[in-house]
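Q: Give me the 3D complex with iron/sulfur cluster.
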Amino acid sequence: MANLHSVFAGIHSPNPFWLASAPPTDKAYNVNRAFEAGWGGVVWKTLGEAGPPIVNVSGPRYGALHTPDRRLIGFNNIELITDRDLELNLKEITEVKKLWPDRAMVVSLMVPCEEQAWKAILPRVEDTGADGVELNFGCPHGMSERGMGAAVGQVPEYIEMVTAWCKQYSRLPVIVKLTPNITDIRNPARAAKKGGADAVSLINTINSIMGVDPDTLTMSPSTGGMGSHGGYCGPAVKPIALNMVAEIARDSQTAGLPISGIGGVGTWRDALDYLALGAGNVQVCTAAMVYGFKIVQDMADGLSNYMDEKGIGAVADIVGRALPTVSQWQFLNLNHITKAVIDQDSCIQCGRCHIACEDTSHQAITATKDGKRHFEVMEDECVGCNLCVVACPVPQCITLRSLKPGEIDQRTGKPASATHGDWTRHPNNPMRISETA
Ligand SMILES: Cc1cc2nc3c(=O)[nH]c(=O)nc-3n(C[C@H](O)[C@H](O)[C@H](O)COP(=O)(O)O)c2cc1C
Ligand code: SF4
Ligand code: SF4
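A: Here is the predicted complex, encoded as structure tokens.
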């Protein structure tokens, strides 16, 4: 079995699967059970400064987007940072870390954007024996209205300033957790690096409203008939988070800065996507909230089996492996041609591919042949767009094949070219680079 040992920003854990700062890491009871189940590390639910405890609503704080068969694909919350006493949290963190010395214990923090507030809390956290701190610059509701969370994460200058204070007042590795509610994720990541961050983690939740109750035409979920926007997470946000992770990993100004990938991770495949696109480890919240702590066992087995099959000896060897294949549209090979192929043996003749292609693509799939239902691709119309592949309910029933160099494209009547030709040199591009350049 492959060794899943992970070192992230100098923090060791037996595997790269950490629980993100959220309800799963809210108290010793949860974290002890999570470690028993096999999680490599946790980021403790965000602590605030000492004082009167945080107050949450007593109405619904969670909402969800389901598929028609009730699988949860998106999750929304209006929960604030921990509403438990600071002293109790610090005591429990100390005890849990002592019990589980081999697991990563990172403590998430959010205090006012004042040097004194950070200076006061950091030594308290260090005294617990924790392995690192994560700065919550991402919470998009409630705390941001009080000038914390996303209100800091949306201003690179504040990120840099607070990160620098944390590096000054603590010896612990500092992970800066970024908000996705920003136009260009590279700016806060660059600010974190400038401030001396040891790593960034992303994403925190995305501003969201789940919908409206059709009977009352009030926002839903609501507390006593009123609602406020919340933070969106779960499987639906993964592609958005992956793009942001890859953007930071590819940016020359943040090159080498460790990234903890968060957003929609629930399986080893999700984790693999993050690792290959530049994350050093992953954090999980929604999947653990919906399916429980034991999902980590399948995640660890799956990643380990994959590594064995591929002959990959260490998690670090996966990190960033797919990055060289991430490019910009202008560099894609416009000479590469694909066509859809339908496997008649697995086709259940539902007709969805025909409707999709007929109504919104290139009218390239038959509905009948010799008077019978029959679905077949007409290569002289197909542009290889992939719509039928994603619309077909049968996995692998429709695939795309690439034309070999020299093979005639029935649509254009021209042979497929073996040479790369992208937009930067295309004759239709008024800004093209000349062939002699
Ligand atoms: C109910 C709930 C509470 C959360 N509380 C916090 C928090 O206190 N601090 C924090 O940094 N992130 C918090 N998050 C964000 C998660 O840590 C994570 O960034 C986000 O949910 C994306 O991961 P996921 O798709 O696996 O859920 C919370 C998320 C949820 C759903
Ligand atoms: S790949 Fe696109 S154009 Fe080709 S058959 Fe499928 S939907 Fe139609
Ligand atoms: S969508 Fe798939 S299963 Fe349905 S007719 Fe088309 S190829 Fe067959």
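A quick observation: The chain has twelve helices and 20 strands.
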